[in-house]
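Example 583, ligand flavin-adenine dinucleotide.
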Amino acid sequence: MKIVVLMKQTFTTEARIELDGSGKPNDSKVKKVVNPYDEFAVEEAIQLVERKVAEKVTVVCLGPASAEEALRQCLAMGADEAVRVDSAGLEEADSSVVASVLAGAVKSMGYDLLLAGYVAVDDNAAQVAVRVAELLDIPQINVVSKLEVANGTATGWREADGRTEVLEVPLPALVTADKSLNKPRYPTLPNIMKAKKKPLEIKAPADFGINPPASKTRVVKYELPPPKSGAKIFKGTPAEAAAALVKALREEAKVV
Amino acid sequence: MSNDILVFVELQNGDIRKVTPQLVSAARPLAEARGGKLHALLVGEGIGELARKAATLGVDSVAVVEDPSLADYTAEAYAEAITQASKRLGAGALLFGNTSIGKDTAPRVAQRLGVGMISDVTGTISTGGNPIFKRPVYAGKAVTHVEVLESSFVISVRANSYPSAPAAASPAPIQSLAVAPDPSKIRTKVKEVVVRAAGKVDLTEADIIVSGGMGVKGPEGFEFLRPLAEVLGAALGSSRAAVLAGYIHPSHQVGQTGKTVSPSLYIACGISGAIQHKAGMSTSKCIVAINTDPEAPMFEIADYGIVGDLFEVVPPLIEEFKKLLHG
Ligand SMILES: Cc1cc2nc3c(=O)[nH]c(=O)nc-3n(C[C@H](O)[C@H](O)[C@H](O)COP(=O)(O)OP(=O)(O)OC[C@H]3O[C@@H](n4cnc5c(N)ncnc54)[C@H](O)[C@@H]3O)c2cc1C
Ligand SMILES: Nc1ncnc2c1ncn2[C@@H]1O[C@H](COP(=O)(O)O)[C@@H](O)[C@H]1O
């Protein structure tokens, strides 16, 4: 069984976001990492190989050359091979375009199980993986906190608002990772060295016969939220502070 | 025809979810700008009663798709039913709540219709020409304005971002649509659904949230907060650290790897205010921090704060709210 994992390189969540002269987030100073949810997906794939459920893990990323560092990280965790689909000209592409390129790439590589994060923490879209599943015409189990794969089916536990769904789908299928799926490993130094020799291919969308379509949405503006002026602090005894707070919530903020 | 707008009416525990009238108020100006009608769509089985309830949401028409394949929710069946229904109704734009079901189904519908989608919308910038919507990115550290470039599109809306549309004086007409997913194309099997906390306030849609962190010191600490939540009709939230420490069930976690919430009032008790926590609640309209540490980062984004021990502050706070709300 072959697993393909979709991986996006994102900023670390601790990063300070600043806008550059053209009003876009300045990512040159920001540390980039494997999108945390994709890290869960990579870890799950490696564990499936360790449990002899799968044989091979390929990690795919649509991104610029700098994303190769994130791909190497996945190889150091234990993935077998990596493919970077070059994003030149697609820097501003929306989720529908990204999905069409990734679906084309995944299709020509072949896979039994497609793993991904459910959301990228930078664009917060939660669209790409599901769109890829739709394009490949495969079922999905989305936002999964526990996964079992056996006999050509995947069973996933999905935390939905107020309920847990246990879903079963035949392979090939997409499973997207939630945070509680597993604990991603830290690559060991020997594995980091080994990863340098693992295959990392660089492709263009055209290599998969894809001519990326035009975006259907466009970001026209980035804004930083206005800095809050700091909390109004109520002093005095707990009883006095509580009374003053409730008064402010009623009369000033008008939220109770 | 395709000027029409469709609002997906999500059903949960035998009722219409609270985000639905908020979708109606987001959709109405779009429908007016396009000169189209506003349809509410319900999907499921045995939902006639709820369709009648939906008729008073303030929409122009209610469409219902009922089929045994839709009794249990699956993205595959729902996406197919919603896609077919929207084509039948000639709807050009579709609105979903950015709920678990919305996240699971809306991108599939968008892809099936071949249209663009803007997820987790928190506001409308403009409705004329190409509509522009506001949405948070980078864990809430930036906000983008996103334009749809084609007249057909899908958006998913964060709960509590729009006011609820007022109920209509007279009910809208209800029509039943004869569309059904082809059962042979539904590959997903629902093995089990475990419903938790039925009837309680859902965290993502709650108007008020009382949230606890490591400062509550243990599972008893959440029991200590519960009366505060009850007097306010609030949902209980928590930090991840409190979840990891086993103080409370993971479904209560707010933050980057938990739920994204946007209540009108968020009361953070003993939560330091790590960026990953803020990522899930910084769009709350009013934030209150109760913390012993005056340097806690939560005070930076809070509107009001009390520097003190939550175990001393919460009891008089409950008394004050009781006086105010229950006379
Ligand atoms: C990838 C990643 C994802 C994460 N996702 C999330 C997430 O989704 N949600 C989340 O919350 N965190 C998340 N975290 C963890 C986050 O970084 C913090 O560790 C966590 O939010 C801290 O929780 P806390 O504020 O309860 O605990 P602490 O940071 O320990 O803070 C406890 C606070 O309680 C105060 N306190 C103590 N006693 C009292 C008292 N008696 N009265 C009043 N105040 C008191 C203290 O002064 C302190 O400020 C994530 C971390 C990572 C790396
Ligand atoms: N450029 C990309 N390359 C590879 N995978 C991606 C890319 N963008 C998104 N994904 C995958 O799709 C998931 C959801 O991303 P998004 O829709 O951007 O929130 C991510 O967690 C990744 O698994």
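Summary: The longest strand of chain A covers residues 140-150.
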